[in-house]
């Protein structure tokens, strides 16, 4: 319908009204005729405006359909209340018993790549983060290497401080971490600062993609799974291997904590939280892609949607962009009850992260509705905890992994109780 038809209708009806008057029709009949005319005019104009508005909205702002990643394990089911941890009486006792996995013919080796900012002098005098990594989870990786910017007199291996890297749990066995970890120097085109307060030279993306290019060239085939692990991340390697065991490493998999922040604007789903996992199939094509990277300099390219070498620290974004160019998307690693295995924050902070308190924040933007929060935020078989100071690694190990689990869990539970009660009050639930 067109609004230009309305004046024609009005004119015609008015004319008919005058003729009705001349024909001595009653004024009541003329009034009814004019009322019907006004109703017809209003309906015509409203209908046209509505159609025009829909047409403009459809043309200017096309709806973005979020393609959620495929689930890693079982199909989604309705979320249920978190069960209490089950003590299995061995390392990893915090994890609930896993479903039986099929027999597999491939090996399940894990390569841990730690990108870091450290000078040769710091490596020789001692880096606390590396000391604690090598005294806790680090030796459980089949291969662990530290990647830093290349410079003269860089040591071939980082040897930890003996006091920090001693066998923390007095099991009577040698701690393999005391032998140290190889150090790889990466040639960087951009400057690299060693002060976290300076954002202008934290070119982490260049270091990460060049590190993967080095791994592809020198270490491809030495493992089935390749991890990027930040120095402030605690990795539960046994839980990781439990999750990976039934998966085929020749498939192109990209695993971690899925973030949907940029999906509404056409960006990819990317993994964040201190640890990302790449299968051997992904490493084969990703590493080859990194052998010939176009370089772009300047702030205008930091958020480029192209797979290029760029300034800045946005390595998670850069990785996802490059994988999308290879038709590889992130896989959902939450457990069958929608709880996350890779935690991007400290555990206590994540427990307080409620969807209703910040639905428009970057963490919740685009998140599927089935992702749980609060008390049900995190899986029992945790794989990665992010944003911890190295000194906390000892406590995490005692709380979650070793024979002191019972006492450690009670200690942690007392700390959690106040948070749980706080969450229950926020949700309007009665106190226990």
Name the overall outline.
elongated
Helix content: 25-40%
Instruction: Give the DSSP E fraction (strand runs of 2 or more residues).
Output: 5-15%
Strand elements, count: 13
Low-confidence stretches: 52-67, 73-102, 167-172, 403-409
What kind of assembly state do the chains in view correspond to? Answer: single chain
- Rg is 30 Å
Molecular structure report:
The structure is a single chain. The chain is an alpha/beta fold. It is 34% helix and 11% strand. It has 11 helices and 13 strands. It has helices at 5-22, 27-60, 120-125, 128-135, 204-218, 237-244, 280-289, 315-325, 347-351, 392-400, 405-426; strands at 110-115, 143-149, 157-158, 181-186, 225-229, 234-235, 254-256, 258-259, 270-271, 275-279, 331-332, 342-343, 384-385. The strands form 3 sheets. Strands 3-4-2-1-5-10-7-11 form an 8-stranded mixed sheet. Strands 6-13-12 form a 3-stranded mixed sheet, with no helix packed on it. Strands 8-9 form a two-stranded antiparallel sheet. Helix 1 (5-22) runs antiparallel to helix 2 and helix 10 (392-400) crosses helix 11. The radius of gyration is 30 Å and the shape is elongated.
């Amino acid at each position: 319908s067109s609004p230009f038809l309305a004046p024609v209708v009005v004119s015609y009806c008015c004319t008919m009204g005058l003729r009705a008057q001349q024909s001595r029709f009653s004024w009541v009949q003329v009034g009814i005729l004019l009322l019907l005319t006004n109703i017809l005019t209003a309906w015509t104009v409203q209908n046209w405006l509505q159609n025009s508005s829909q047409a403009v909205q459809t043309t200017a702002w096309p709806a973005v359909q979020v393609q959620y990643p495929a689930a890693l394990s079982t199909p989604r089911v309705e979320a249920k209340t978190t069960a209490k941890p089950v003590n299995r009486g061995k390392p990893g006792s915090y994890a609930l018993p896993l479903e039986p996995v099929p027999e597999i013919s491939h090996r399940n080796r894990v390569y841990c790549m730690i990108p870091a900012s450290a000078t040769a002098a710091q490596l020789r005098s001692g880096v606390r983060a590396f000391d604690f990594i090598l005294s806790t989870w680090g030796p459980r990786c089949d291969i662990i290497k530290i990647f830093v910017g290349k410079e003269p007199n860089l040591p071939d291996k980082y040897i930890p401080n003996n006091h920090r890297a001693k066998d923390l749990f007095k099991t009577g066995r040698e701690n393999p971490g005391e032998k140290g970890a190889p150090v790889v120097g990466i040639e960087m085109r951009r400057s690299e600062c060693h002060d976290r307060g300076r954002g202008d030279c934290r070119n982490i993306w260049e270091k990460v993609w060049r590190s993967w290019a080095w791994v592809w060239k020198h270490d491809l085939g030495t493992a089935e799974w390749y991890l990027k692990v930040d120095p402030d991340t605690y990795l539960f390697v046994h839980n990781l291997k439990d999750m990976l065991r039934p998966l085929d490493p020749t498939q192109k998999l990209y695993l971690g904590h899925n973030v949907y922040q940029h999906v509404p604007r056409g960006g990819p789903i990317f993994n964040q939280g201190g640890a990302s996992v790449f299968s051997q199939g992904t490493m084969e094509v990703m590493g080859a892609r990194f052998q010939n990277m176009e370089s772009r300099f300047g702030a205008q390219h930091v958020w480029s949607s192209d797979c290029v070498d760029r300034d800045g620290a946005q390595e998670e974004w850069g990785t996802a962009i490059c994988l999308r160019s290879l038709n590889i998307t992130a896989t959902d690693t939450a457990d069958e009850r929608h709880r996350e295995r890779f935690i991007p924050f400290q555990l206590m902070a994540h427990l307080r992260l409620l969807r209703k308190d910040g639905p428009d924040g970057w963490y919740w933007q685009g998140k599927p509705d089935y992702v749980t929060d609060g008390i049900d935020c995190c899986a029992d078989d945790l794989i990665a905890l992010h944003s911890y100071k190295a000194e906390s690694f000892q406590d995490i190990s005692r709380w979650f992994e070793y024979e002191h689990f019972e006492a450690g869990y009670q200690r942690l539970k007392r700390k959690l109780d106040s948070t749980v009660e706080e969450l229950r009050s926020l949700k309007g639930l009665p106190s226990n």
